[in-house]
Design goal:
binds zinc ion; mainly alpha; 71% helix; single chain; 216 residues
């Protein structure tokens, strides 16, 4: 891995330089590209059309995203199949069940798992690359709660120590600051509240963002 560092490595590095959870950032960028590509190429792709059909279309969130691309023809072609099936079902008075997940959600999960696993397997890199990866990850904001939860679920005890320590310290500090915020919000503690650093006066925003993540 000297000249041809893995694409994931650079994507992760770039995402860690931005505020917020790097996996959320990567997912937002890749799903955007996925839907864009889907509209321009896969709309005529039989595999994609079959996936889309078996899922009964996109979920609410991704249907909403689809509309933002303003490709009316693609939305019409996809919707045409959906409404036709619904009309058939209405006539039979029996609604079919869809067994497959939303294709964009499935793609999102694939991307999340790929990058989380890549982070967890930092020990497989060259020593210098691993050092650099640890450095840029720990200089960033770290994973949001849902993505760290997924990582733990996925890798269990295989999550490397440096990452466990970084994330757990981050969450513990967030809890401590939240406790202080709640405590100082009580009547009679206005002075202590006023003395809080500006970011601690709005720690609830940071807490909510961490608990929810930033997937668009
Ligand atoms: Zn995240
Ligand atoms: Zn979806």
């Amino acid at each position: 891995m000297i000249n041809d560092k893995h694409v994931n490595y650079f994507a992760l590095q770039k995402a860690c330089e931005k505020p917020g959870c790097p996996i959320c950032d990567i997912v937002n960028e890749r799903i955007d590209r996925y839907i864009d590509g889907m509209l321009f190429e896969h709309i005529s792709d039989r595999v994609f059309r079959a996936q889309y059909r078996e899922a009964g279309g996109f979920c609410n969130r991704h249907s909403q995203a689809l509309l933002s691309y303003r490709d009316g023809l693609a939305v019409a072609i996809l919707g045409q199949g959906e409404i036709s099936e619904k009309i058939e079902d209405f006539k039979k008075k029996k609604m079919r069940k869809y067994k497959m997940p939303c294709p964009a959600c499935a793609e999102q999960e694939r991307i999340e798992n790929e990058f989380l696993q890549f982070m967890a397997e930092s020990g497989k890199l060259d020593e210098a690359d691993e050092k650099e990866l640890i450095s840029f990850v720990t200089k960033g904001d770290g994973l949001c709660v849902p993505h760290y939860a997924r990582l733990v679920q996925l890798m269990g005890k295989k999550v490397p120590k440096w990452l466990v320590q970084f994330q757990e310290t981050k969450f513990a500090s967030l809890l401590e600051r939240t406790n202080r915020f709640i405590d100082f919000s009580a009547w009679g503690k206005q002075k202590q509240f006023e003395a809080l650093p500006p970011e601690d006066k709005v720690v609830w925003k940071e807490l909510a963002a961490n608990l929810r993540g930033n997937i668009q």
